[in-house]
Amino acid sequence: MSITAIAPSKTFNLAGLHTSVLIIPNKKRLSEYELMLDNLHIGSGNLFGNIALEAAYKHGEEWLGQLLDYLQGNIDFINAYLKKELPNIELVEPEGTYLLWLDFRKWNMNQKELNDFLIYKAKVGFNDGDIFGEGGEGFQRMNIACTRSIIEKAMIQIKEAYH
User: Fold this and answer.
1) So where are the chain's domains?
2) What does the pLDDT look like over 103-146, one tens digit per residue?
């Protein structure tokens, strides 16, 4: 017996609508789940979220294809920029996400020094790698689900602040 959970949250940028789908083929488990929702008074759903979910899954294929191409272009830009301008920062190739991991360990800075450099000198804000657990020290997580001009500006600011 399995329960499958899916959501358009990340793929279609609908996280704020708090909408997902559970596929529960076992009728007994489905009844137990529905009873739990009723008891917690959370089973009414979200009208806007439900409409957006349906629209995304029924009509979002072309948009999603364009988004994936755009995100790949952002990844390619960052990869090329780092290799040419900041070779001591390594890009960890993403596996199906718009959140990139940048490896700053060659800079030989502790996490506080790295954060201070990025925030106060380069004026960019990423997520600290160490908040994601052991082994994250020296890494930063960068969201690339934005326009290329924002990414270009961030890369230039890091380069200018470093040199």
Assistant:
1) 4-59, 62-162
2) 999 999 999 999 999 999 999 999 999 899 988 999 999 999 99
* Beta-strand runs (E) in the chain: 4-6, 21-23, 90-92, 99-103, 127-128, 139-143
20 has a pLDDT exceeding 80: yes
Q: How far apart are CA 13 and CA 11, in angstroms?
A: 6
CATH number, domain 62-162, options 3.40.50.720, 3.40.50.1980, 3.10.690.10, 3.90.1150.10: 3.90.1150.10
Q: What is the DSSP-derived secondary structure letter of residue 117?
A: I
**How confident is the model over 32-70, as pLDDT tens digits?**
999 999 899 887 778 899 999 999 999 999 999 999 999
**Residue whose tokens read 């500006």:** 153
Q: What is the DSSP string of 30-75?
A: HHHHHHHHHHHT-TT--HHHHHHHHHHHHH-HHHHHHHHHHHHHHH
pLDDT band at 96 (very low <50, low <70, confident <90, very high): confident
CB 78 within 8 A of CB 151: yes
Distance CA 160, CA 156 (A): 6
**Angle 141-128-162 from CA coordinates, rounded to 5°:** 80
